[in-house]
Design goal:
This protein has about 130 residues and is mainly alpha-helical. It contains 6 helices and 3 strands. Helix content is about 45%, strand content about 5%. The longest helix is centred in the C-terminal third of the chain and has 18 residues.
Length: about 130
Amino acid sequence: FARHPRTKARMEQFRIKLPKSIKVTEPLSYLEAVNLLMDAKVVLTDSGGLQEESTALGVPCITLRDNTERPITITEGTNVLVGSDPQRIRTAFEEVMAGHSKAGRVPDLWDGHASERIVAAIDGWLEKAAEE
């Protein structure tokens, strides 16, 4: 559990204790987080970025929110929204652990070649501007 400082404060405020079987860490760098995601069986998160990364890596994602600004991770990816209801969270988790996770796919254009497409578009604009 890579715990955000605000989450830590809330947990202390509400006296929430985690079982010893859950390893708690400080927030992770991007590369550290992706490294953990690559080997994860499932991700439980409220982070938009983790919704995207888990989809890109094909890892089931359970999002503990009622909505998302990354809807493609739901329509095409591995993400499911469960809100904050403990029973919905537990049910989604148990489904993944039983091998019944949502079958998603990596969305079109999530191929790691965005920079090449951007450079090509800029080159096209520059060529057009030079002609004008």
